[in-house]
Amino acid sequence: MKVSWDIFCNVVDNYGDIGVTWRLARQLAAEYPFAVRLWVDDLQPFVRLCPGAQVDAAQQWQEGVSVCHWTKDWQPTEPADVVIESFACRLPQAYRDAMPQRMRPPLWLNLDYLSAEEWVSGCHALPSPQSNGLRKIFFFPGFRQTTGGLLREAGLLDQRHAFQQDQALQRTFLRSLGVAPEEGARLISLFAYENAGLASWLTALAADSRRTHLLVPEGRILGDLQRWLGVEGLRPGAMEVRDSLTVHVLPFVRQEDYDRLLWCCDFNAVRGEDSFVRAQWAGRPFLWHIYEQDDDAHWVKLDAFLDLYLLGLSPAAAQALRDVWRAWNAGQDMGQSWSDVLQHWPEVTRHAEYWCQEQASRADLAAALVQFYRNWI
Ligand code: TRH
């Protein structure tokens, strides 16, 4: 009998909750002899990441994962050997009650949000007693040896490397998205929340001596983009040119193709949690639009990541990156900080690959979860 895993995902908003849990579920099913069920309470965003999926199926098989619609009228279900509630979502009461009834109660884990803050190391893998008599383990992804690591599929970096070496493959991929970049142009992808700083960045790119192609998957940033361009109703396939800047609006693509997009680009603007990690595996410099939290808690998270990420850069390059990231997240003028980053372009590009390799030298999140389970039984 295969070891069974249940992963619960409550979609709060955007794509991050399902993005992370779907990626984890797929990896566990593909790389280990496990039976994996993913319970999702909203299938709409799932279908965007996995376009072959059905939005109204109570249960469906996708890439070896049994994807189940988690509805309010919960039907009695035998709990799995390992139960993961993601981002502190609340398991159905009947399921919680059934967990201690199993002959061997499940390993119960809460998969937490990603943060580079130091306290994460101290809280990772700590148990907490629950009302059903079981203990729940708080499992934290992270960037340090003392955390649960980052999601990274087997062979991901080899695939990425092969793709980045193959110009023809990249051109074919970009053509499939309707993009044919000019020789020597800089490629930048842009995935972000609404951002008042965008206009100043676009102005700097348009005035640059080097051409830029800006590739923008449709999403929340389109309003700011339209305002700067002075157009309305931008749709995937739209292309606009302003001096040195060519803007392409792309469709929202499946998760694997989003990786390829990041791999093609010289610089990636990403957001949230999952695209933030994928940009790091792309080995290219990037800009993170962090998910805003109450009481400005996200600034602490942003600085904690920068403190780690910038280690090893020259003081001037580190300052340039810190300034551009802070300006972007404050929605402030990007002109000066972007021009400072351009001054250090070779160094920040080398550093992105160095950071990627350093992070990849640690166990990935799925491997860390599996090891934790094996130690626990
Ligand atoms: O969508 P997000 O803003 O999700 C956020 C964050 O996860 C945040 O931490 C969380 O608290 C909040 O949701 C509720 O950003 P994120 O995490 O990058 O997720 C986007 C997903 O969409 C990711 O898996 C990549 C994927 N994606 C595609 O598959 N195709 C695309 O074309 C694009 C642009 C993204």
How would you sum up this structure in a few lines?
The protein has 377 residues and is α/β, with parallel strands linked by helices. The chain folds into 2 domains: 3-149 and 362-376; 156-360, Glycogen Phosphorylase B (Rossmann fold, 3-Layer(aba) Sandwich), CATH 3.40.50.2000. The protein has helices at 16-31, 43-49, 93-98, 119-123, 156-165, 167-176, 198-207, 222-229, 255-264, 274-281, 297-309, 315-330, 335-343, 345-360, 365-376; strands at residues 3-9, 34-40, 59-62, 65-69, 82-86, 107-111, 126-129, 135-139, 186-190, 212-217, 239-242, 245-250, 267-271, 286-289.
What does this structure look like?
With 377 residues, the chain is of the alpha/beta class. The protein contains 15 helices and 14 strands. The strands form 2 sheets. The protein has an 8-stranded mixed beta sheet with strand order 3-4-2-1-5-6-8-7, with helices on one face. A hairpin with a 2-residue loop joins β11 and β12. The chain is globular, with a radius of gyration of 21 Å. The chain starts with a strand and ends with a helix. The structure holds 2'-deoxy-thymidine-beta-L-rhamnose. The site of 2'-deoxy-thymidine-beta-L-rhamnose has 22 residues, from α1, α9 and α10.
Principal-axes geometry comes out as: globular
Largest β sheet strand count, sense and barrel closure: 8 strands, mixed
Number of strands: 14
Distinct ligands, ions and cofactors found in the model: 2'-deoxy-thymidine-beta-L-rhamnose
The share of residues in extended strands comes to 15-25%
State the helical fraction: 40-55%
